[in-house]
Amino acid sequence: MNTMSKSLRIVTIVGARPQFIKAAAMIRALAGSSTKIVHRLLHTGQHYDRDMSARFFKELDIPRPAVNLGIGGGTHGAMTGRMLIAIERALLKMRPDWALVYGDTDSTLAGALAAAKLHIPVAHVEAGLRSFNRKMPEEINRVLTDHMSQLLLCPTTTAVDNLAREGINAHTELVGDVMYDVALYYRSGIPASALDRLGVRSRGYFLATCHRAENTDDPARLRSVVEALRRVATLAPVLLPLHPRTRNRFDTLKIKPPLNVRVIPPVGYKDMLILESEAKAVLTDSGGVQKEAYFFGVPCITLRPETEWVETVQTGWNTLVGVDSQKTFEAATRVDEVRALPRPSLYGDGNAAQKIIEHLIRASTSSLR
Hints:
This protein is of the alpha/beta class and 369 residues long. 45% of the residues lie in helices and 14% in strands. It has 17 helices and 13 strands. It has helices at residues 17-31, 54-59, 76-94, 106-117, 137-148, 157-165, 178-187, 194-198, 213-216, 219-232, 244-253, 269-278, 287-295, 310-314, 325-333, 335-338, 352-364, and strands at 8-14, 37-43, 67-68, 98-102, 122-125, 151-154, 172-174, 206-208, 238-241, 261-264, 281-284, 300-302, 318-320. The chain is globular.
C-alpha cells in the first residue's frame, strides 16, 4: 500500500494483563486519530482468569475483542502452537495492513510469527528490551519477535542500542513507553481516599507481587521469596495481591503466608496504581510493576537477578536481589535513602501511543511495505 486513500487496517494482538494496559493507550490514541484507521482487537485468551482479563477490559474502557481465541493454559510450546494456528486463521480472514504486538508473552511471539508467515508487517511495541537471560521464556519471545518485525517501537534509548548491537538499525523508532501514557492518564483521576477502601495508609506498607515461572515453579525459590517477605514484614506490613499461579503453588506446597503479610486477591488496574504509588516500596518480579514504581517515584526491590529495565537499576531506584532474603531485607531498610536520589525522565513524555500511530502511518506510505 503506497497511499492513504483507503483506511489503514490494524489488528492488535493481546493476551496478557500488561498487554491490555498497553493496548488501552493505543486504542484511546487511535480513536482520536484524524487518519482513516480500522482497528480490530484479537485476544488470544492467554489470561483467562476473570481477575486477569475481563476486569481490565472493563476498567480501561477496552472494547470487546473482535476475536477471542480462548487459548490459555498448558506448556509454553503447546500454548504458542495452538495460538499460532488460530491467529493465522483469524488473520487470513481480516487481512490487516499491520499486526501490532506488545511485549514478550507467548501471545506476542505467536502473533508475530503468524503475521510474518502471511507477509503481514509486524509492529512491535516495547521492542529492544533484553534481560540477557535466555532461560526466561520472555527473553526468547522478545528476541524472536524483534527479528521478525518491520517496525520496532522502542521505549528507551537502551532498547534502541540493544537492537543496534544485534544488527537491527532500520525502522527502529524511539517513542517512549505506552505504559507511562496509561499510568499518567488513570492515576490522575484516582483519589487518595481509595487507600481507605484497601485498608492501608500512605507509605505504611510494602507492596509485593510474585508471578514469574522461575520463582513460582521452583519450590525452593518460592519458599525463599516467602522468607524474604517475612523478613521485610518486620519493618512494615506487606500487602500481597496473589497471582492465580502463585496461589495454586501456595496451595500445592502448603505454604502459609507469614505473619504481617496480608494476602489479597488480584486487584484491578486502578487499585494497583494507587497501591504502587503510595507504597513505602515495591517488591516484585514483574517488569511492568518495576516501571510503574519508577513512574511514581517509589523504590523497587526486584525479586530477580536481572531485569530488562536496566535504567531503573542504573539510577539507583531499583535493586536486584534475586530471592536472597538477606539482600531483600537490607534493600528494604534503605528505601528512604533511595527516595532522595535524582529520578531522571526515562520513558518519554506520556505521548508514546500518538507517536506510534504517526510511525505506522508514515511506514504505510513509504517503501517499508
